[in-house]
Amino acid sequence: MTGQRELRPPHDPETEVTAPPSPTATERTAIERPVWVPTQRSIDQARITHFARYVAEHYDVQPESYEELWRWSVTDLDAFWTAVADFFDVPWTDRPSRTLVPGRMPGTQWFPGGTTNYVSQVFRHSTGTAVIARNELGESTSLTWPQLRTAVASFAATLRANGVIAGDRVVGYMPDIAEAVIAFLATASIGAIWAGCAQDLAVPSAAERLAQLDPAVLVFATGHHHRGRFVDRTDAARALAARMPALRLQVVVPRGPFQDPVPAGPDGVRQITWSEAVADEAELEVTPVPFDHPFWVLFSSGTTGVPKGIVHGHGGVLLEQLKSAALHTDLRHTDRFFWYTTLNWMMWNARNAGLLTGAAIVCFDGTPTATSLWNVAAAERVTALGVSPSYLELTRNAGVRPAQDFDLSALRFLGSTGSVLSPHTHRWIADELGPDVMVGSTSGGTDVVSAFVGSVPTVPIHAGELSVRCLGVDLQAWTDAGEPVVDGVGDLVVVKPMPSMPVRFWNDPDGERYRAAYFNAFEGVWRHGDWITLTSRGSVIVHGRSDATLNRHGIRMGSSDIYRAVESLGEVEEALVVGVEEPDGGYWMPLFVVLQDNAPLTEELRQRILAVVRDEVSPRHVPDEVIAAPGVPHTRTGKKVEVPIKKILAGLTDGVIADDTLDRPELIDFYRLVGASRRNTPPSGT
Asked: In angstroms, rounded to a whole number, what is the distance separating the alpha carbons of residues 364 and 201?
């Protein structure tokens, strides 16, 4: 499994409506030389290699490369997902009658008749460290597997004693701490449904998410750490509880200086402390549930409306995350897995999937400064670390040299997700960490709580590319006409079902909102909303969200292509580009740049910015204006908020975006002023 064969789905170039951009200079460099190449030893030891051998022994296929294994995995879904379940010995209570009942998406039935529970797989592991919890003050605690099991069993018994049954909702308003992991596992063990929010979300935004579930239990911490101080969230949690009329139990996790006394909860709601909730010893009782029984509810970002509640099932998540964690990230019981995240982001759920493999997971309550996450990785001897591209750029811009400034000798994998990882940053961090550390980018979503494309430890990685389509994911790039395109730009679509696709949306009884979200563009095909290039060697380049696509003179362009070029200039810290349709039929495409040390935007620098876009991308990508900005707002997961900024520049104000979904909401006023100035000034013939 050392290479990949050329993959060319049939397509007719004359019918393609998307004009593929010319390769940029950085993309040409990426094509010429990988940033990481697996050694024969790493290939031989990889869990995906063992899986391929298992497949060869038990099925009528002999995959000699990753590409061949992937092709089999999407050609014979029945055999592939059966192999995954059998290879990992999924703990069935009742064995399913078959693997899947074929049908058009949505509506595929997976493993009908089968009952299991995600938590049964977690607690197959019993020795060593299970959870490490660290804060930004450097304080660290850990739980062994027996200690984790005891805590989960005790908390589950408390839930049962308070009348919580399968299907009830338990929600958390907490930082990324061990208690959140325990509460989640305990909830799942009895067949109840989990959902969580981080405490940096204000009460209205947290309530938009959690209150719509009518939860029976709220678990909250009295505060969290942020930039060296402890932030009291007790009053916020009480205000949140007041918006939950069905609440009957409140569990308080006292932290920091706000530990005693704990204020009383709402009238009629029983309140206990965390120590009381886990005080009584109990045996862990895991309730078997059907394969598609609701497991948790995750939420859309909320940047374009009320967050949608996305419901996933026990079995689909179990299989998908076993595959991702063990086969793609190559996790095993000897690993320590840390992905910086909060409870708002699906990476919290994906990070917890390390427990499925027996790896120790690392929680972190704190702020991702240029050094803090590297500190955690060094102190806890992390072997697999995950961050965002914006964090890597923050590190680079601060002059931090991770491999020189920190002891990262245990690290063997660095993952990146949340936004597009530029070739420039990708090559920089790969060079910094050296050939023994695999730097792999992934792209997927909350929608499937997994990745569509990513990496494996058996295939070389090129800068700015995601090296493989994930096993079991029949991903293609399609034109607007629904034609597959290779080495050109198209919409990311998935043409066959995945087990972890949502069971349903919350409060969507007829499935209309679910179908509208993914299946309206192409009948029976999942359209994700990302704009990608699928290369002839099977790798993927992500160009950004298709709803933020630039469309000048009928030619669609990806914003990330411009970012790659502009952010390679040393003076530019970050960039944001949007295309605004104007009332007179015009199209305005401004480029906002954040300059290092708030330096002035000189005419000489402006011309160099325009030149690098022209030379590194194409003349049609050159923006109409270059505007110095005080900053670029992001979602809490690090994504640039292109669509809301586009709407604000166009003059929309009401309900465009909630301030507390942003990392720097104060920046919005700047973009409002720019938009107002533009609308009051006639265009100058750009």
From this structure: 17
